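Record 1 of the preview.
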Amino acid sequence: MSSISTRGRQLREVPASGAHTPRSILARLDRINVWSMPFIFVGIIGTGFMFAFYDVFDINVSFIQSCVALKPGCTPANAVSTLRVPVVLNLAGYVIGALALAPLSDRFGRRNMLLFTMLLTGLGSLYNALAPDYTQFVIARVITGIGVGADLAIVNTYVGEVAPRRNRARWISVIFIMSSLGALLGIWLGLFLTTPPAPCPHGLSFAQAGPGFESGWRWMYGIGALLAAIGIALRLELPESARWLIGQGRLDEADRVVSDMEVAAAKHGPLAPVDEEIPVDRESPQSSLAFSALFRHRMYVRRVIQQLAVWFLAYVTVFGSRPASPRCSPR
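->
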């Protein structure tokens, strides 16, 4: 039995029923230059982005109603100042999920962890819907944040491993469009379910909140749990990452996944010849690297700073618009 390593991970060349080896499967995978999975998988993979932004705008729009219902002394006038606690702890959950849960996909598989993180977000949202008091509401926000943070990290890893290597960033951008759908759904459902009827621009004339319907915020989180359940059912159709399977020595399974991708890619035109001279890293493989390794290389430092800036500005934009929402809330 021999072994090679690629990207710092050991690939075990184990005997299999066919003639495939880690090197040959990687060569076949890398020659595919088009999206080689059903296009509906773009939406299925992106359910994590959709849920994340639905969740962000869910709490933004519905928080006044939930705060008044759960926290003694909370009124529409002071609810905005109370929002900072569940928001900050929810975002802290993102960090915990990305740093603690996402790396487990190296051990248990991308697909399995994508199912687990969606389950966790759904349970967190359901906990929010049923929360009997403000403390448990905040705890539920942390649970949801952990699931969302891990899911977003694993989605990017999964797409990076299944998308054509020459335009991976393009497909990540396409999948990110799902976040816009989640934001749109969260905003309009929130206005419909948690604000009283009011003429534009102060609200929606057909909004439902009022003395006879004060639990719209629970419906919002319940719908979030339903979205997560749908996401789990859809993600069951996703194949495991062939690159992860190769790293685990599961060559027969990796061969089947790549064969299916080749069939799909061939519908777009002839496949390129298999390049047997794929680059192989001959350095000693490492099972894991410390996060501090990101700051030892100038290229990665620049990328970390760039990503921090982008996401910081994104969330400042999202939560900075919060003070305008009391105009559409019950008084």
